[in-house]
Amino acid sequence: MEDTPVLSLSQVSKAFGAVRAVREVSLDLYAGEAHALAGENGAGKSTLVKILSGVHQPDAGRILLDGEPVEFGGPANAQQAGVAVIYQEPTLFPDLSVMENIFMGRQPRSRFGIDRRAMRTAAAELFARLGVQLEPDRPARGLSIADQQLVEIAKALSRQARVLIMDEPTAALSGKEVARLFGVAEALRGQGCALLFISHRLEEIFKLCQRVTVLRDGGFVASHPIADITPDDLVRRMVGRELESLFPKQETDTGEVALSVRRLTREGIFTDVSFEVRRGEIVALAGLVGAGRSEVARAVFGIDRWDAGSVEVDGRRLRPASPTAAMAAGLALVPEDRRQQGLVMDLSIERNIGLAGLAALHKGPLISRPAERERARDWAVRLRLKFARLTDPVNVLSGGNQQKVVLAKWLARRPSVLIVDEPTRGIDVATKAEVHRLLSELAGSGVAVLMISSELPEVLGMADRVLVMHEGRLVAELDRAAATEESVMAAATGRSVT
Amino acid sequence: MTATATKTETVRRNGGRRLVDRVARVRELGIVVALAALFGVTGAVNPSFLTYGSLRDILLNSSIVALLAVGQTLVVITRNVDLSVSSVVGLSAFGGALILADHPGVPIPVVIAGCVLLGAACGAVNGLLVGAAKVPALVATLGTLYAFRGIDYAWAGGRQVNAADMPEGFLSLGTRSVLGVPLPALVALAVLLVVGWMLRNFRSGRELYAIGSHPEAAVLAGIRVRRRIIAAFVANGALAGLAGVMWAARFGTVDATVATGKELDVIAAVVVGGVAIFGGSGTVYGAALGALLLASITSALAVLRVDALAQTAINGALLIAAIVLDRLLALRVAAALRRRRFHDDH
User: Which residues belong to any copy of the ABC transporter domain (chain A) (predicted)?
Assistant: First the structure.
């Protein structure tokens, strides 16, 4: 590994206004090496990726390609240099076919313009190489996240990318899909591609990568061969302090049934789903992405209507398809996608926190600003929110802190049943632990918690009971003792006999 | 076992291709069916609707809007809109007529080229406002809608150019027929085919769809979004300039109010033609068919002696029906794609 890195950053800095997102960071990517970029949310990882991909231009420092300084004026330059990026958010064109997504701007041409037949063949060849079955002609709309990422990888392959950057590619994938992605990544590395891998899941970093660079608060902390460091060391470097235990669910006495779902069915989405959640209990809803878990949550909360069955909160039947009724009955839903569904990104922290409980903030016909501020301050302190001013828009906060704002918004209503959908997705380790502590405390205070999660350690660590869904059906209910990685995965992949 | 698997695989692939193709075609086929039904019913009630003269009038009446709809599609596909086209048409029509009336020596092709360039310049203003200054297209082109019309008014100063002031050779361009088809309709058809082909077979054409389908992703994909958007507005402006000359040649009488309000007809044609108003999908063929359908309805309603006032309401109802149809189709396709993914897992 003593040869010249394919791509490297040397003492790179980038500021946005007064915020110094990245300070004097150096990074060397070698051919045939998988390099992990670790750090909490807000550590500067995404900014670094955007510098490497030409989206942002560094204020200081240099980018070196094969040891020669280069400037990436825009994404097109970086692509020409052989840098391909798989972003956290899908970046496909939903209206265009899969093959056009792969070859956009580089479509094979014949004398009469774009040669669709050649493009179709080339796309099919790429998919064959990746071992996936995707139709080159289908539109990208409706593809699962896993398939979208495969299309992105096919794009990188077709460009013969020398550097492949993956920014949290596994956040929304199931175990099987992660394995497939890693298989492809390994193969690429074997062919001499340099990989830069970002993930909050430490086990993945240790599985895939040979080297790790740690960032903290925009600054460079350390760069190690992965063999020289333990997961605990890595976490300590990332946070800069010792962590409390990751999954601190405390034992609590369970009380009355707070949420009771009976034979709930929504045609073609989920079928005959029945379960109960008691006060003081955390029930996890596990399963693969696409098993219908979020859809059940949406129906229970009244966002989607259901075709058969019933939902009761504290013994009272809920009016179907009415979030207003669900909220009045004491339900709260922290959705999966906080940017799209959980928050109004341009509104201030205090406004977002006040949003779900405006009725309580009224003084006569008008909303009382002092009351709104008071409530926001109160919850911000309780959830240890890190912020500059309550009037800052939530989009300046890191992912973990945004999630705290969503939680605060719902907790301020003092719900009796809290449904959280992927509560720690894309959140750094320290905040994750805080969210877990919080959920545990809530259960301790008598709230019934239904937690949808794709992260097995979280499910196993937090839940009193685990419900497993597979293809729209509830296929298993496991108590704490019976829930193991094997039993949950077996049920989630449809291998168990309940 | 393997044989069956391969077979299902092939079936599914073809099925997928067919589905997508079918939806794309169905959308334009729907307009053709609507046109056929309209001509059938109206012709049955009043056979004079199907005479050569009547059909020729419909073609003439729709060709200017069709030309503008083709241009507008270029802009709408990128998730933008150009409301100022009617003012560009007005400016170009008046400018062209004025030159022809006051400087009879200028050759007609030069006048036409000048009008197209004038339109392109107006389009460049829109394109720079939207692409470079990042003003939302709705606001930017609403502004230029008034601004261009204002320039037109100031330039005209109340003057009207009449047919008698313009050379006969120019006016005949608006009414002459080649092989029985009016020349303006042939021009619109030629533009339609060229633009349609470019959108489908040029990389830049596909990039317009990409930009409208997901603007942020287009930036990340290295597409020069700003340049493409400006180009779309310039092309649309140039076509509006061409439409302006056609207007002057066809109607002969030109003042500063020419084409006022036409922008809404154009956008209606585009939407009826199945071009998604939020960009990313639709074809110029659909948009041109939409223009033809709207013009045909207007003529049919006149033949059927429907109150002229009711015609506007009927056009509106048609527009809404088209949008509802698109929405339903989109939902059907999305559901079908989701189902296919489900099967793919096994």
Answer: 7-242, 252-496
